[in-house]
Amino acid sequence: MYDHLIRATAPGVRGFAAITTDLTEEARKRHDCFPLAAAALGRTMTGALLMAANLKTAESLTIRISGDGPLGEIVADAYPDGSVRGYVKNPFVDLPLNNGKWAIGQAVGKGHIHVTRFVGLKQPFTGSSELISGEIAEDFTQYLTMSEQTPSSVALGVLINPDTTVSAAGGFLIQALPGAEEDVISKIETNLSQMQPVSQMVHKGLDARGILETVFSGLPTTVYDSINLHFNCKCSRERVENMLISLGKEEIKEMVAEGQAEVCCHFCSEKYHFNAQELKNILEKLAAPQAR
Ligand SMILES: [Zn+2]
User: Which residues crowd ion ligand 1, with CB under 5 Å?
Assistant: First the structure.
C-alpha cells in the first residue's frame, strides 16, 4: 500500500487520515534514526501532513516540537500536495520501553509545540502551546483545541520491526466544525474509545479510508479523493550554492584554502560536496558585477 491521505466529512465534523509507513521509513534511513527517534519523527511528520491537508495549494506549514528531553527539537515541513520532510536533532537516542511502549514523552521532555503557517505573500504566522505529554498526538490535540480553538482529536502511531525498519505508520485528525451536533460528537467519542491504536490498524492493512470509516461508523459519511504522500526535500545544489554565496567572500576564501566544502541538508541528510575549483567559480560569481 502506497502512503496516502484521505479526507472525509460527517455532519458538522471533518476528518483526515494518513498512511505514512514508507515516508517514515525513508526518514529513518536518511537520518539513520534509532527506533525511538524514528517513531517520534514519524508521528511528527504524520501530524504535519494531516494539518497541511487543509491548506491551500501554495501554502505550507512547519511543526517544531521543542522539548528539553534527549531527542532535542523535532521539525517537520508539510505541504498540501502531500510532500513532507523532517528531522530530529538527536537521532541516536534510545530509552527503555515504558510498559511495552516507546518512552517518547520522556525522550521529548517538557517544552512547546510551535506551528508556523506560510500563507502566500503574507507574513508567516506562528502559534504555540505547551507540550502536554511529549507523546506528540496529545500535543497536536492540545495545540489545535486551545491555540486554534478547533476542538480536535489526533491519533498518531508508528510500529518498528525488530530489525529497526518501520513496519507501520499513520494517523488521523478529527475536527468539530462550528455548529456540530452533540449526538454526532458523542457517537464519534464512543467510536474512538472502542478503536485499536492507529498503528495496529495500519499494521493490519487498513487504509486511510478504512480508518475514517471506523471513526465515523454509524454516521452518514462523505469520503473525498485520496492524495499520495511522500518524503520530499526541497533542497538542491543550486539552493546550497546560493546559501554559500550568502556567506560572503571571506568565508568562501577560507573554504578554498581548506580545499573543499561539504554541506549537509538538515532535513534530508543529503550531502553537497564542493571542490576547490567549484568554490573558486562561486567566488568569481561573487566578484562579477551584478547583472541589471
Ligand atoms: Zn534536503
Answer: 233, 235, 265, 267-268, 270
